Sequence to fold (132 residues):
Amino acid sequence: MLTKKIAILSGILAIFMLAITGCYKTETIVVNPGSSITQTMSFSNDIVPIFTNSCAKAGCHAAGAKAPDLSAANAFKALTDGSYIKANDPDNSVLMLWLTGKKSPVMPLGAGPDEKINAKIYAWIKQGAKNN
Fold:
C-alpha cells in the first residue's frame, strides 16, 4: 500500500516537473515607450525616414518587393490599405506587433526590435496615424 502511494506521488511529481520545464518564452518583447512622446509625430518627417533607412530596401519592403511597400511614395497607402495599422491603437496594429517581437517575423530582420524606432511609430499610431 505504501509502495503504491509512493508510485502515485512520484508520478504526480514527474508530471508537475515536466509541466514546469515546458513553460518558458523564447521571444524578446520590447515594451512600447511611445506613450511618453508628447510632440506630434509627422508621417513624412518622422516615420518615412525610418522606413527609408530600415525597411524600404531591395528584397525587403521596397516597391515590387515584400508587402507592405514602405517606399516614401507608397508607405502610407500600403499600411492603411493592407490593414497593417489601427489608428489610435498601436498595441493591436500588426506593424507594432512585428516591431516588438509579438508577431513573427520580428522586424527589422536581422536587427530585431529597436526602442527608438518603436517609440516613434507607436506614438504616430497612437496619435491617429495621420498622413501628415
